[in-house]
Amino acid sequence: MANDIPTPEELAKIDHKPPRKGWMDTPTEFRPGTWSYPGKASALKVLDLPNPREWQPTDEDWKLPENWKEIIIDGLKERLDKFRSLKIFMDICVRCGACADKCHFFLGSGDPKNMPVLRAELLRSIYKNEFTKAGKLLGKMAGARELTKDVIKEWFSYFYQCSECRRCSVFCPYGIDTAEITILARELLTLIGCNINWILEPAANCFMTGNHLGLKPHTFKENIEYMVDDIEEYTGVKIEPTFNRKGAEVLFITPSGDVFADPGIYTLMGYLMLFEHIGLDYTWSTYASEGGNFGLFTSHEVMKRLNAKMYAEAKRLGVKWILGGECGHMWRVVNQYMDTMNGPADFLEGPVSPITGTRFDNAASTKMVHITEFTADLIKNNRLKLDPSRNDHLKVTFHDSCNPARAMGLLEEPRYIIKNVCNNFYEMPENTIKEQTFCCGGGAGLNNEEFMEMRLRGGFPRANAVDYVHQKHGVNMLSCICAIDRVTLPPLMEYWVPEVGVCGVHELVANALIMEGENEREYNLRGELIGETEDNEDV
Amino acid sequence: MNIAFSILTVVVIGLIPWIGTTAVNLQYLFGIIIPYAAVIIFLLGVVYRIVKWGKSPTPFRIPTTCGQQKTLPWIKQNRIENPSNVVGVIIRMALEILAFRSLFRTTRAELKEGPRLAYGGFPWLWLAALVFHYAFLTVVIRHLRFFLDPVPFFIAWLARLDGLLEVGLPVYMLSGFALFAAVSYLFIRRVVVPQLRYISLAADYFPLFLILCIAGTGILMRYFFKVDVISVRELAVSLAGFQPKLPDNGIGGVSYLFYMHLFYVSVLVAYFPFSKLMHSGGIFLSPTRNLANTNRAVRHINPWNYPVKVHTYAEYEDDFREQMKEAQIPVERD
Asked: What is the mean pLDDT of residues A197-201?
């Protein structure tokens, strides 16, 4: 973590009172820790995106194309004609302020431009100026303003300080969804080459090599084989996963972050063990080796281009249906966009669990099932041999990831699983879970190092709720079903609640699984002695 | 600045009919032409706006899910907050439109010592909004007494209910005062809460002041400076019957107050389609609320879906064939 990050005590002194000066007259400041590095020319070129160049937000000249203004206005018009959502959301906000203190970035930073209403107003003011009579006639009085290069700088700053979590849209009396506004604003910015590298590079990697990390096919396979070795060491069970195998019943796709980074790898080991335990006929794919989709954070078009691999690979391999791992925004894409963009998946069959015979009617059209739906069904039908006491040293709480919660409604499945594989489960306060859950602070492509201060600020409401159950119940493990969470939450916890670890739900499942032919399970998947982990202290 | 501008605007709007009907005899303009024009602008404007919205498609199904999805049969779905059929959507929309469901969730976040973020408090905004809208509706319906002859029973009944307290003479109508109080609250809130003041535009204050003036002139007319109700009714009935005619002896009593009231209403009605007040129409079309979350069960069609450039498996295998073979990953072509 960078040295210039304030201490938690300093950071928690948050002033939510806006300044005297109006927001239109407040210029954007690019302070270290509050912005992400811009997209590299090389990444833009891979994706054929406009205006590849070297630049920095702190530069005076952003090297925008000559006709940047025209591009933005035309782009906005095109999107107003294509998306009713945008038109409605631009027109009907009454600025009631119900959303203001619902945004984690506002709660953690106090910056008024992080109030969802104002974030939308950054775009709305230009919309009014260009497309409404009131705005043209009354200007500032109607909330309209001229599009200038400073507005572009402001957009870049604040539309990359929104994690598209949709919490504000739960409270909005008209359902105005800031995520939708941010998505489209980022599309506009991308038209003139203003985007961030943490999104563009993974997207480019995903396009060329199949996953965000740019793991080539053999490396992808090797990484998983390392985990197979670890599993054998800790459990004595030898697993032999297959890759790009034609004729498997199920194609399994999960975010590549879990192939690579701690603690996500333990979740992935969990999948391997679960599938071995139930004897699932499945395959991994190195071509469709990414569940996540950073195209969602770039533009609808890039999202579609990356997502296309899932169905294409399922078709090529001739599987019956697709099973998807724990991931947040991946499931937003799968649930809300995939079938519309790249369907119909008429070459697949309606998903049926080969173990329990359960038909997943809710996925009848996309033919893609969420791993927690699948596992919950296994547990309900008593198909897993479990010893939840192996997780007794853990006091677990569950972080609902924004996208499965608010773009899907996947709330009870993971809870059912956790309660069956752990004996100690405690919920965080109700204003911070389920549909009201708080972002980890790094969603929508913002989980980069240079953005750390804002991440810690944005993650403050989540961390604060964890701290509450940590103090009240001694919670020492924060479980989640999202790969970005598993990367973002550990530094967040380390900063605000250092005694709490982070894990995926299927890590907990695997630790409780009684595998056929296993040894006396002394170690958990992290190589820690069961019952003697660091978290065992009384709090 | 925004507040001053809005106040100035409503004052000027009030002066126009006052001068127009006292200094100059423009009763016909203010009593007949302007109200008709306002209604025409309103109707055309609202239709124009809704058609304009309707022209843009809903390319993706993006409901904000606020409860458990429909999934395995033994997991209880929240059929209203995460609807999976039309009935659920209708109930969700009805709750949103009639009871302001989402606003009811509103809590205030407070940073306390610790640091501890706490969320709580009564949803006053929800209550004020509810009182405001229902009081306004009651007032509007009650006013139909002026326009309809004979007065339908339910309007008479509503007016009786509205005046239930039966205090004084004439009977005090609760709705008018409730409206006035709720609008005042919504205004004070905008000024007192710093974040709200920061985001508020003239376009936010102006309708509040306009409605305050409408309610204010109405209350003044009814309880303090009496207007001849018989002649007002005569005018209203003639307007409603499309045979507009000013009463022979004009509007009796403090007539300029009446014309001010009517002019304020006309301005509000004409302003409506071009302002944020269109939220009342927009909410019906809001795609995060009016769509069922059947995303994975039923395919949603995007009318402008177009083919995109993808990196095909064949291209991918060409890039990595040797490494794949070496790692014993099956390939299509040797």
From this structure: 98
DSSP H or E run through B19: helix B2-22
Q: Tell whether the torsion through CA atoms of A488, A489, A491 and A492 is positive or negative.
A: positive
Q: How many CA atoms lie within 13 A of A236 on its CB side?
A: 10
Res. B167 pLDDT band, cuts 50 70 90? low
Give the residue, B167 or B124, on which the prediction is more confident.
B124
Pick from B53, B195, B299: which is nearest to A343 by CB?
B299
Which residues share a beta bridge with A396? A425, A477
Read off the pLDDT of residues A41-55 as tens digits, 9 standing for 90 and up.
999 999 999 999 999
Q: Cα(A442)–Cα(A400) distance, rounded to whole angstroms?
A: 14
Q: Please tell me if residue B109 touches chain A, with a CB cutoff of 8 Å.
A: yes
Assigned fold of A14-30+50-194: Fumarate Reductase Iron-sulfur Protein; Chain B, domain 2 (1.10.1060)
What tens digit of pLDDT does each residue of A323-363 get? 999 999 999 999 999 999 999 999 999 999 999 999 999 99
* Residues A453-475, mean pLDDT to the nearest whole number: 98
B65 and A CB contact within 8 Å: yes
3-state secondary structure of B151: coil
Residues A492/A462, Cβ–Cβ less than 8 Å = yes
Q: Does B278 sit within 8 Å of A309, measured CB to CB?
A: no
Give B155's pLDDT tier (boundaries 50, 70, 90): confident
Per-residue pLDDT for A504 more than 60? Answer: yes
Tokens found for residue A173: 């009396």
Q: How far apart are CA A168 and CA A441, in angstroms?
A: 15
Give the homologous superfamily in CATH for domain B2-326. Transmembrane di-heme cytochromes, Chain C (1.20.950.20)
Would the pLDDT of B189 be above 50?
A: yes
Please determine, for residue A536, whether its predicted confidence score (pLDDT) is greater than 60.
Answer: no
The Cα of B33 is separated from the nearest Cα of chain A by a number of Å equal to 24
**Cβ–Cβ gap A175/B102 under 8 Å:** yes
Q: What's the rounded Cα separation, in Å, for the pair A503 and A482?
A: 10
Q: Is the pLDDT score of B171 beyond 80?
A: no
Q: Which residues of A touch B65 (CB under 8 A)?
A: 405-409, 435
By Cβ distance, the residue of A117, A169, A305 closest to B199 is A117
CB contacts, 8 Å: B316 with chain A = 208-210, 287
Judged by CB atoms closer than 8 Å, whether chains meet at A465 and B117 is answered as: yes
Rounded average pLDDT over A240-260: 96
Put residue B286 in one of left, alpha, beta given phi > 0 → left and psi -120 to 50 → alpha: beta
Q: Who's near B198: CB < 8 A, 6+ residues apart?
A: A18, A22, A23, A112, A118
- For residue A173, is pLDDT > 80? yes
Pick A173's closest partner by Cβ from B102, B197, B311.
B102
Q: Which of A71, A39, A342 is nearest to A201 (CA)?
A: A39
Distance from CA of A50 to the nearest CA of B (A): 15
Confidence of residue B226 (pLDDT cuts 50, 70, 90): confident
- B64:A107 CB<8 A: no
B87 CA to chain A: closest CA distance, Å?
A: 17
- Chain A residue closest to B331 (CA)? A244
| Chain B residues touching residue A429 (CB < 8 angstroms) | 119
Q: How far is A352 from chain B (nearest CA, A)?
A: 12
- Return the domain boundaries, chain A: 14-30+50-194, 203-536
Question: Is the CB of B299 less than 8 angstroms away from the CB of A409?
Answer: no
- Residue in A98, A118, A169 nearest the CB of B103: A98
Q: What is the residue extent of each domain of chain B? A: 2-326
Instruction: Give chain B's count of helices (H) and strands (E).
Output: 14, 2
A·B CB contacts under 8 A = 312
pLDDT confidence bin for A538, thresholds 50/70/90? very low
CA B246 to chain A, closest CA, distance in angstroms equals: 34
